[in-house]
Amino acid sequence: MPLELPDTPFALVDPARVDRNAARLRDRLDGLGVPLRLHVKTVKSVELVRRAHGRAPITVSTPAEAEYFAAAGYDDIVYAVGIDPHKLPRVAALRARGVALTVLLDSRAQAEAVAAAGIPALIEIDADGSRAGLRPDDPLLPEIGAVLGDRLAGVLTHAGGSYHAFTPEAQAAAAKGERDAVVGAAEVLRAAGLDCPVVSLGSTPTAHTVRDLTGVTEVRAGVYLFFDLVMAGLGICTLDDLALSVVVTVIGHRPDRGWIVTDGGWMALSRDRGTAEQPVDQGYGLVTDLAGTPLPDLLVTGASQEHGIVALRPGSGRPLPELPVGTRLRVLPNHACATAAQYACYHVLGDGALTRVERHTGW
């Protein structure tokens, strides 16, 4: 099935780039002596995870992801979103099937519910004030550890500030701050007489820029398999590393507005505008030809539910290219996780043909 056949829009994956991205991070972490726990929230596909990661330990964002991957034989899973006690029966059911599923929490109420259920938990550490968790010096940290008792699995952090670090020096500093916070939290727990076997940190920027992982037992990352325009804007990857794109079709023109209209609106691309906060704003996505070559200064500048507005980058002096109705284009996404979430399957490119690959959805 060539690229001209499936109805558009559809999510296209370049497996050679997935392989290259996986090898790059694997080699880097091997050099630092710390294993990777792949976060499957981006790809949500057993086939692609096996391709990149085998059956090694994984991280999930939803109980449904845990159930989906457990059914495929994955038996070492961290559910890395603060646990809602109402979801503990689903966690317990997976553990009863032999899945080593660990949850995450940052409050005494969660710890009491988890301890009563006999489920192991990681305590979430706030490394930079960007999301949930406890600061390493919060007096609640050892208290919660004591409530968990022998169900304390360790500590985990995610430093969202790494997504706003635009130089190698700033990225290294963010990664060091993340490492120092989570290792410091582990030391606090151990000083209180509590075991803390797992010290987990990660994001794709951290994984690619951290220089010292002393005291860390695992690194988590997910979007690196596909990468996206936000990661390219940070300098973590190049456009040639982006493995996910959306194929769309030109369905009309508005020459009075300088628009080319496609069938790829925000239902196909997502509303994520992550590059708007970066030095180079890529609109709703960067436009390439069907072979993947970027068309100079051409962006998806606007999107309604099923319509994408393709236009020249503001300030460009180039002429709008001639793209007749029926022309197929590819759009490189701002945020691979959000764009992939619009699809029930991927079309994987190989030897000039496409293969449909299942993608999990839901919570």
Overview in brief:
The protein has 11 helices and 17 strands.
Would you kindly provide a written description of the structure presented here, covering whatever features stand out?
By secondary structure, the chain is of the alpha/beta class. Helix content is 30%, strand content 26%. It has helices at 15-32, 46-53, 63-71, 88-96, 108-117, 140-148, 168-191, 204-209, 229-234, 266-269, 336-340, and strands spanning 10-13, 36-39, 58-60, 76-82, 100-105, 121-125, 152-157, 198-201, 218-221, 244-254, 259-262, 286-288, 294-303, 308-312, 328-332, 345-350, 353-358. A hairpin with a 4-residue loop joins strand 13 and strand 14 (308-312). It is elongated, with a radius of gyration of 22 Å. The chain starts with 9 loop residues before the first strand and ends in a 5-residue tail after the last strand. The mean pLDDT is 96.
